[in-house]
Amino acid sequence: MRRRFRITFLISLGVVLVAMIWFGLSSNARITGLRNVLHYNLVQRLGGPRVGVGEQPGSIAGTVEDEKGLPLGGATVLVASPLGDVYSAESGPDGRYLLDGVPPGRYVPVAGRRAYDDALPQTCVAGLCWKDAVSVRPGRQARGPDLALKPLNPLEITLNDSLVVSATTEVESTAPLPGKARRTHFSFERAGLRVNDCWLYEPVGGGDSLPTLLLVLPGPVMGWEIIPVPFANQGFSVVACYPLRGTDIDADAADLLTALEYVRQGRVPSAADTGRLGLIAASFTSLHAYRLLALTGEVDVALLLGGMSDGFAFRHDIEAGTAHAREPFDLIIIALGLPNSSPELYYKYSAMYHLEGLPPLCILHGIDDELVPFNQSVMLAEELEQRGMAYEFYSYEGLKHYFSTSADNATTQQMFRDSLDCLRRGLNAPVH
Q: Are 101 and 39 part of one and the same domain?
């Protein structure tokens, strides 16, 4: 009896240990998000993230290579403190990089370049991976990893027979500007999920070859019809979707491009001219927009409303108490992990580190935004200006996050008109 109990106990202990190892090393987006939230709460209970302030800084040196092992120049390499402070450098023609002025501590570097997948040092065994950290000591140069970048593979968009298209109905909106539109719901299955919050909005009077807007909304589409209906009323074909995969933004991006492809192929009947394509995103979905822009060159102009451009800076503002992200946005940021040990998602979804090749941007932000700091758009506009890239920047006194849904709110109405004008210029679209 005792022997049987002992065997049962050992087997149970083994199962628990395997489960703990899998939870600790799994790369599943939902698991990593939960793990990062638990880790953050533990760190907070122990006194919060610490940085070697007052100690002599050190440095990290290493190389960046391509998939053939050849030196790769022009890549951005960075590490970040637990508080979101960034220390970055660009690899030279010989592939070498030097990160200087780094406070003592442990860091996971990340590297990226246009047309390449981002890379960070990690070791994988039997499908389980863990990141390799670099220890920086006061006044010492640490040997950093040799980071290998592989070419970015385009997303493979495949259509299937799961598409369901509803009957078209007419819908009306009174704010920010009055308008009507024809609305069609459609859904499909992709990668184990039914993508069921996509809608097509087009003018009531119809039309031919309408410029197309891919609208990525931060909440269920039906709750945000004040955006797609007025745009459709102004002569656009609007494909509006709400992403459903949490922090797995790459999978969301594939969902969005798949939805667009169903429209392009005529399987969702429309008058859309997807050869003239604009992209609109707001708040958290600005991350989806920037990732889409990195993955496809189809977009002619992108409009960002109250968007986040630098995840590291946002995390820094949260830790400093100058940004007050409310639920669930605060959990989304925390779920990305501590920037020193989990920099990869902050880097991947931050426009500030992926500006090369972007189309013209329309940037709109309320100065009094209480959720996403106004400086997120200011930093982006300043960097675009310095690089000589095409953009338009609109700021609004007294406007907070998003905008007022009141029909008589003059500031919101002006924001809509500015958005409309900027998109028309980017798409060469006539006034409807």
A: no
